[in-house]
Specification:
Layout (H helix, E strand, L loop, with lengths): L20 H35 L6 E5 L5 E6 L2 H4 L6 H13 L8 E6 L3 H9 L4 E6 L24 E4 L3 H15 L1
Helix pairs in contact: 1-5
């Protein structure tokens, strides 16, 4: 045991070739930074989709579905007015596209990034598609159904509950929504 130091943040034990707590923490911190960067990049794609929706006169909501390998499997924006279809929310369109592309009704190991907290219809579709994770930007106290209103994933009859992460890119997504509705009034 000579030459070894032990304790939080202390050096390296050459005879055992083990890393110190500080080295392990630095590695974890870097890994976490990469996850945050990746998450923000996917949300930025969803925000661009929301901007496209706004330019077409649609409520500015965008969604991106990402496969386990990091590949974007689908992207969509609201097209309710364009398609004359009340179910043409960004999440619904992205789920349909990703299911078609994967030839499956289940998107296990996929994640969805959306610029606004999903409504009850979209939250239910996310559950039915078995999406592993839901990342959303802006909270929606009026029509949201994840952390507000019916809280679909907390309901006892919800068969599948994704991991949920809210507030990623919230300021930008909320600003886009506010500007859209101010211009409409």
């Amino acid at each position: 045991m000579t030459g070894c130091t032990f304790g939080i943040g202390q050096g390296y034990c050459a005879s055992r070739r083990t890393k110190s707590f500080a080295d392990e923490l630095a590695q974890l911190t870097e890994a976490w930074r990469q996850v945050v960067r990746r998450t923000r990049n996917y949300m930025d794609v969803a925000i661009e989709m929301a901007k496209t929706a706004a330019s077409l006169g649609e409520v500015p909501v965008g969604a991106v579905i990402v496969a386990a390998d990091g590949r974007i499997a689908a992207r969509a924006h609201n097209r309710v007015r364009t398609l004359k279809d009340p179910t043409a929310h960004a999440e619904m369109l992205a789920i349909r596209e990703a299911c078609r592309a994967s030839s499956s009704e289940r998107l296990v190991e996929h994640s969805i990034y959306v610029t606004l907290e999903p409504c009850a219809m979209c939250a239910s579709a996310i559950s039915q598609a078995r999406l592993k994770r839901l990342y959303f930007a802006a909270h929606d106290p009026k029509s949201g159904a994840v952390e507000h209103g019916p809280r679909v994933f907390a309901h006892s009859q919800c068969h599948f509950r994704p991991e949920v992460y809210g507030g990623i890119g919230e300021r930008e997504a909320a600003a886009i929504l506010r500007a859209f509705f101010v211009a409409r009034r």
